[in-house]
Amino acid sequence: MYASEGPRDRAFLTETKLAVRNAPFVDGGWLRAIDMVARATRSRGANLVCLGGAVPSLNMIAGFDQAEVDRYFSDPAMWGRSNWRVGVTTKPFEVQHDEHYRGYRKRHGSGDYCEASHQLDMPYGCQTIFSQNVAGFIGLAVMRGKRDGAADPAMVGRFQHLIVDLGRALRAEMAMAGQGTKLRFDALEQSSAPVVLLNKHGWVCGMSDAGLEHIERGTPLVMRGARISAASEIDDRQLQRLIDRFSHPSHRGSGPARLLLQPREGTLWRLHLVPLPAGELALGFDASLAIRIERLFN
Questions:
Q1: CATH assignment of 191-297?
Q2: What are phi and psi of 259, to 5 degrees?
Q3: Which class is domain 7-176?
């Protein structure tokens, strides 16, 4: 049931913002908040995702049958390149919507994720991320069904309005999570080496400050959605093959690998890919591969 137009709609928006602000402080607050965000944007449901271990309890979905969603998305293939919601991700508080989804599918094809999204009736919507750093990756997607139709400018505008309060509430949640959830990233934060962490789906789930500097410069690695790529197309084909190899169950526990990149502007780079011990989360959101960037000469 959606909020009505007019004064009731404005009242529901105010109620939604209040629910978002209170989410960190009440039992079940986050699930109620994302459900209200979905209703306020006239959408069927919403999915809050937290990768990298910052606040694992924030992985939740509203508006859909959890068992049915799990039946599809427990398959690691759903979190790979066919996942156009992951593929269009850019930087915190930038909103992507159906126009971006269509562009991604045109460039990369549809695949398993597209089939699943239609089966679950979540083919449309919009999204953003709130964090993409050493603490991990936190994002919210609002999903619309066939009855709702594609996201229109008014719906996207309302979503943009609400994510300001969502960002503040998430910062409060992470602050209250305490030092315990931060400990696993302490060594990475204190490291001067440029390191990027990937989970078994190939998503970036953490990086050192030095690694972030390299990513922001686009040398020698760049972010494409939630995935990492080499700046050179030739290098990237080799890098993706290595990442896929380490992601495959048959290669778990295999030794490190090195990749020498083509010189760029007089600089030679080498990547060290080091597999990490398997995490506890069944869907593989924990870091499973570390990539250290080494400059050989300039």
A1: 3.30.450.20
A2: -135, 115
A3: alpha beta
